[in-house]
Amino acid sequence: MIPLSTIDEAIKRLVKAYDPLEIYLYGDYAWGTPTEDSHLDLLIVIKSSDEEAYKRGYLAFEALLGLKIPKNIIVFTQEEFEKYSQDKLSDFYKIKTKGKIAYARA
After folding, report:
1. Average pLDDT, the chain
2. For the chain, which residues make up each domain, given as ranges?
3. pTM score, two decimals?
4. What pLDDT digit, counting tens, does each position of 60-94 carry?
């Protein structure tokens, strides 16, 4: 399992890298029982971006270098996340309604 102190450090690094609106924790660490094989699953919501969605996560992997943790990072703009999380059958709806907010901009 990933220690809470490492998860906290990951969140701090991602906040510094992205200046996000929110960061959601989902998956085993949010609604399951994490095991030795569990990833750190995070969805980062940013204000806007001109970058292709699949490229936005590269910065996260750079920011988390050295932590040596399994991770799955998704980065959406606020508009994208609002749109995708409206579908009650989507994983994004589940993340928005049942995920844990690990960070929210004041």
Report:
1. 95
2. 4-104
3. 0.95
4. 999 999 999 999 999 999 999 999 999 999 999 99
Superfamily (CATH) of domain 4-104: Beta Polymerase, domain 2 (3.30.460.10)
Amino acid at 16: K
Residue type, 88: K
3-state secondary structure of 67: coil
Rounded CA gap, 87 and 89, in Å? Answer: 5
Strand 100-104's sheet: what is its strand order? 71-77, 40-46, 22-26, 100-104
The pLDDT of residue 32:
82
Torsion of CA 63, 65, 66, 72, to 10 degrees: 100
Please give the DSSP secondary-structure letter assigned to residue 55. Answer: G
Inter-CA distances, 99 with 24, 66, 68, 75, 94, Å: 6, 26, 23, 15, 7
Q: Which residues contact 19 (CB under 8 A, 6 or more apart)?
A: 46, 105
